[in-house]
Each structure stands twice: as C-alpha cells, then as structure tokens.
Design a protein that fits this description.
Blueprint lengths: L57 H19 L22 H8 L2 H9 L6 H62 L5 H28 L6 H29 L8
Length: 261
C-alpha cells in the first residue's frame, strides 16, 4: 500500500494566504468601422434627438422633382459670356469718317438703327445678347399663347356652367311647384285630414243612433211587429257602424292603424 506525501508549500507563501488572482482575459477584438456596408435587412439608424422621422410623401417627391427640374432648367439657360461694350467703341466703318459725317450719323436714328441691326457693323455683344434672348422670347410668346388658349377655354367652360346652373335652378323651382301642387291635391287624404274625418264620422253616427232611438220613443200609438222588427234591425246596423268607427278611431289613437298587432 503506497502513500503519497502532500506537496510542501511553496517557499515564501503561507498556507493561510489566498492564491493569486487569475490573469485578466484578453481584450475583445476591435469592432468594424461604421463605414462598413450594412446588411440586407439592417434598419436605418434612429433620428437624432429632437427631430421626428417622417415618411416621404408623394407630394414631397413631386415638389423635389419640380425643384430639380427648375434648377436644371435654370442652369441650362444660364447667360453665356457676353463681351463688354467698351466706352470708346466705334464700328470699323465709322472710324475713318469725318466730323460732319459723324454728326449726321448721330442726328439720324434710322441710320443708327441700321448700324446696330447689321451683324457686320454692330458690336458682338448685341449679337450674343440676341442669340441668348431670342429663344427665351419665343418661349415666353408660346407660353402667353397657351395662357390665352386656356383663358378662352376657361371662359367657355364658365359660360356653359352658368347656363347649366340656371337650367338646374329652373328645374328645381318647377320641381318645388309640382311638389306643392301634389301636396295641395292630396291634402284631403293626409293623416290629419283622415283622422278628422274619422272622428267626425264617429260623432255623427252616435248622434244618428241616438236620434233614431229618441224618435221611436217619442212616436204615439202602437207599432206593428213588422215595424218593430224593422226598427230593431235598423238600430243594430247603425250601432254596428258606430262600433266599427269607434274601434277604428281607438286603433288609430293607439298607433295600430296598420292592422291588429
């Protein structure tokens, strides 16, 4: 039987002291920079604090597209470089003229206009300005013609709309008149008129029965069996009619005009 002796403690360390702490873990690998390409399903970063995120609207895209088109059109029509007109510039054909000829030139507006209109005698700045302004003027004229055409079309549509509005008002007035005539013709058959007629017929029938009975009692003499039978039959029929009318009026008062419920 073998016995292993315990290992002696290391020199300089007491058995009551705790062991030294383990070495620190290695540092984590560096994170990739923010310039890396996001994944396919990565979400956009949240907006900065104080700014709300709004979904792009179709109207915003339309306005942005219009602004881009206007910006592009503005850059496309930027003014070209036009040479400056010197203060002492004169046409080549006038440099060798006499003072009398120059005085005649200055006093004749038609001659000045002819010199300015001719490409061979005018300053290059005039030709460059005309080349730049001519398409713009033509575009403005075309836009003006389009506006005039739209104005004419709008005037026509407005006139047609006015005529249709007047016709509709006339039809509305005629419709109201027809409705008034119909209500006037059917006023005797209105619920109020029918109820008044029913109430009057009930009172009238009750008075009729009472009058027949009183007239029979007030007569003198002895009645025959036939007269008694006729009187009883007549009173029963009149009372039956009075009962039916009172029943109908009661049903009307209870809201059961449509039938027994």
């Amino acid at each position: 039987m073998s016995y292993t002796h315990p290992a002696p403690p290391a020199p300089g360390l007491d058995s009551s002291t705790p062991p030294p702490p383990p070495p620190p873990p290695p540092p984590p690998p560096p994170k990739p920079l923010a310039t890396s390409t996001p994944g396919r399903y990565s979400q956009p970063p949240p907006p900065p604090p104080g700014q709300a995120y709004h979904e792009p609207l179709e109207l915003d895209a339309t306005q942005e597209y219009g602004q881009q088109q206007h910006h592009h059109h503005h850059h496309a029509q930027t003014q070209p470089s036009i040479p400056a007109v010197e203060s002492n510039w004169l046409p080549e054909s006038l440099k060798d003229k006499s003072t009398q000829d120059l005085h005649h030139f200055l006093s004749t507006p038609a001659l000045q206009q002819a010199f300015l209109s001719s490409p061979t005698t005018t300053h290059p700045a005039v030709c460059a300005s005309e080349d730049y302004l001519t398409p713009i003027i033509n575009s403005n004229l075309q836009l003006s013609n389009n506006v005039l055409a739209l104005e004419q079309k709008l005037s026509t549509l407005r006139s047609q709309t006015q005529q249709r509005l007047l016709a509709l008002r006339a039809l509305e007035q005629a419709h109201r008149q027809k409705i008034a005539e119909t209500e006037d013709a059917l006023k005797d058959f209105s619920p109020m008129a029918l109820y008044q007629r029913l109430n009057a017929s009930v009172q009238e029938q009750d008075l009729l029965v009472r009058g027949v009975e009183e007239s029979w009692l007030e007569e003198d003499g002895v009645a025959s069996d036939r007269e008694v039978a006729d009187f009883v039959r007549g009173v029963k029929e009149r009372r039956k009619t009075a009962f039916l009318r009172r029943e109908r009026k009661g049903r009307w008062d209870e809201g059961r005009v449509g039938g027994w419920r």
